[in-house]
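Record pair follows.
FIRST:
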Amino acid sequence: MAPETPGFQTEARKLLRLVINSLYSNKEVFLRELISNASDAIDRLRFASLSDPSLLGENEAFSIEICVDSEAGSLSVSDNGIGMTRDEVIANLGTIAKSGTEEFFDQLTGDQKADALLIGQFGVGFYSVFMVSDRVEVTTRKASQEEGTVWRSTGEQEFTVEPAECERGTRIELHLKEDAKEFLSTWRLKDIVRRYSDHISVPVTMPKDDDAEERETVNQATALWTRPRKEVTDDEYNEFYKHISHDFDNPLDWSHNKVEGSLEYASLLYVPKKAPFDLWQRERVRGLKLYVQRVFIMDDAEAFLPLYLRWVKGVVDSSDLPLNVSRETLQDNQQVASMRTSLTSRVLSMLKDLAEKEPDKYKQFWTQFGQVLKEGIGSDPVNQAEILDLLRFRSVKGDESFDVASLEQYVGRMNEGQEKIYYLVGTSSDDLAISPHLEVFKSREIEVLLLSDLVDSWMMPMLSKYEDKSFQDVSRGELDLKVDEPEKPASKESARGAGEESNNEDADLITRLGNVLDDRVESVRRSNRLTTSAACLVLDENDTGHQLRRMLEASGKEVPLPKPHLEVNLDHFLLHHLKTLDDDERFADLAHVILDQAALTEGQEYLEAGAFVTRLNRLLSEVLA
């Protein structure tokens, strides 16, 4: 059969150009990627052979072989794993998932070192071979197939595929560039294997020296998580993380544990430094690598951790589960449920230690994964108290702001006699920091948490108390904060607000405003929130907030817009002016402008933009006339 010549997917060609132009700052990582892929292929065959032992044939001894041909200038990496069919070869080597690729290119910065780290996050490490080779040949045969396939490419516009006779598994042959001939040295290759792939549980074999036919195992070939913690170096933990996550950066933290007793299992859990590009895609592949008695079972065992910990990478190896365990049986298995409880506590404990001992690292974690962790408040009531201690907020107290504040720190800074934890929800923490709802709190130097993540409007109603302190949204309901009225000098302006006459005038003004704005607000009332602004909008305690409504609408649900209450600052000069207006039309214009100004600070949902501009221009023209 004549060779076929398909073209690379457009996005794959773009990526190849980046790789070929030395996107990676360290070219030797190509060997780590090839060995990692070979190890995965062997793990998959081990698992498949549990239900179909015939897949192994007579070749049951797994290994990864590295061969060097100095005369031809070529290097090959071979495994006797699961192999690939022709269609899988084209799919895996000629294309990249469209959504992932677009996201990848969106995140490119132009900084080679920074962009190189993205390669691992997007699972396209195979293309690193083109950094060191000008021609690549992949020969492979699926364990269940009779015929193999050979794939050839120079990393340019096209590649060829044709049938081939070969053994089970995959062999990747690299014809090295002139500036990459250093990788023909067995000493150089052994150093790379021991540095990057010593943890691989499959033997990686090589010639003993450049000319010898005798081969030796270069790596320890022992599952890292089965070794005592004291025998494993930080470098080995880091490289194992890169192997299982395909990330090119070191992890932020890890936890290695062995549990013995009624349940026996080992776990190695990692906290990444950066969130994956598909963190918010609920259908994404997630979960821990599952081994049973050191036999690989599945890549993404999601039953061992809750959804809000979906960013955790790692391995769990059980001695109690059956080798033929399936994804379905994991969901209902009591042993798995117990392990899930324990592993969840392990992750939360790891984060607590990180927050207490290395706050700068925890701040980095919070920036990447804080929003996801907040999901646990509603989905994991058992661990809600532990999660609460891990939450971080921006806050403001008087003229001072705090970028990262824990609830423990907030309570420690509370004013004497303060019984509630005050917070404000919005779309931007910068906008929240200047919200009129904060004015009385700033004047009294009472700290308020500023919540701007989309999940916050869903999370906060689920919180009742922290320690013995309840939570209060400062933009809802009647504010129960008692504010001492400052003494004012006896002036013409202040005299208007004093005595029974003033109270009657205030009541008349509120009634008049209510009549004019009746179709837009639930009520008009005097505010004890405001010190400098003219007005603000307030929702009832049980009304659906702006952020939550947007979340529900994004999921296809229609949520009616609740009527807000307009709270007015009767000491503001605009309200004093309104009291003197007899012109009903001008009074109505100014009343609506005050309402629209308040709406602008609440995200414009209650703003009548066209009418606002018309009224404002009419008022300005009168002033300037």
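SECOND:
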Amino acid sequence: MNKSGGLNLFPKLTEIPENAGLFEPIRGRLLVGGELIQRGFETRPVTSPILLRSEKDTLEDVLLGETPQATSDHVMQALAAATQAWKSGTGEWPSARMERRLEAIALFTQRMQAHRETIVRLLMWEIGKTRGDAESEFDRTIVYINDTLEAAKGLDRDSSRLQFAQGYVALVRRMPLGVTLCMGPFNYPLNETFTTLIPALVMGNTTLVKVPRYGQLLWDCLLPEFQSCFPAGVVNVINGSGREIIGAAMRSGDIDVLAFIGSSQVANTLKSQHPRPNRLRSILGLDAKNPAIILPDAPVDLSIDECIKGALSFNGQRCTALKLLCVHDSIAEHWTQKLAERVAAMKIGMPWEPGVKITPLPDTAKPGELRKMVEDAVADGAILHNSELALRGQATLIRPAVVSQVKWSHSLAQVEQFGPVIPVIRFNHVDEVVEQLVASQYGMQVSLFGRDARQLGPLVDALSNQVARININASCQRGPDVFPFTGRKNSAEGTLSVSDALRAFSLRTMVATSSTAIEGRDAFRGILEHDTSNFLTNHVIL
């Protein structure tokens, strides 16, 4: 496809450095019931948000490969495979000892690391992530897996101890929930999908993974590793239009756990399709409109640096991004001007360029959506800073915008923009902001910037029942992964972190008997001494 417009920011083929070079186009596959499926489905071309500058002064699409467009029949086959592997909880994987499952996941992790460079480059080319961020996503995923394995060992060791109370002896373990549907987001197609997939597998669930709409091809190199490291049907990976193919799986009632990171609207639709919603466990990471509140005594340089980092890391395409800046009127004019100057100076370009901050957007509809939100606000009195540069760009690459004098009624203040636009609202009294946050449908995080403990302390108390994390003089973020990650209202359901996720994908189950009745005590002791049960055992992972 030929694209008109300026050309200087996009590269010619000869200008791409060796460490960012393209691969041969990839033909994506499905993994169903332990079998790699390479045909029998339509495919959709995957083009990069990075365009190439031709010798004829046009911008050309880059074909990265083809991704499967699975049908509902493929999904139901994958669901049947996961259901068979679950086998009402008696399958090989759910009934195996924790040690056996951890060994399989450790082997997969070891083999996964051989694909680091492939995945890093595809993160750059598929979704426009900088090389540094792409490397960080891969490496953080490996750390997350290893930390989860260690946490699982500790959980299993604690569960191997007998408990005595009121004449009873019991052993309590956490057991899997069943067939789990994992659906991750495009902005972290590897890491955030794995933050649900790995704990689900560790605890013995079988899984059906629907890969994100962008960031698809990087999964293909992992399919043979899933195939060789796990029993057939434990990990099934499909791709296609979720709107068209996931409904049948949900309506079947065979999904026991929905692990979804995306919009609350889609999550509500998926949950409503399940015929037995009381049996469906949901672990959800959803919409967010995380605000920053900049008080009169906020450290200016620090608050601006943190707000830029929070608002524009990976082009603002993060659920934990700062999506609304609330600045006290006494400092708003000076503070906003400095913010706009620093944003205007940010380097825009290709993901592999040193120091680049703003890169092409994978969603080709996003630039138009952002422009419409900004235009509507400006038409109602908002001010677009650096207007000669802001939101102008080349095809998928746009410059970040700072919009001040935004009103609470504007869509920029109410809707999650998920892109490089920074709305700024001025306030006279912080109670105005608190009132809006109380009424908001979102409740993930907030950042507070200030020095006076007499102001910050009451503000923390006022917001602690509105959001799940309050950051003081720091931007919003997910990590470290040992901390809980969740939200209130429409922003989340369930809690994810290294240890919380293990609990989210499992249920406490116990075996008990009377410690005084000889028949029960002897039977209990016999099972332990002869090690005839994978559940009732004091076997300890070393």
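COMMENT: The radius of gyration is 25 Å.
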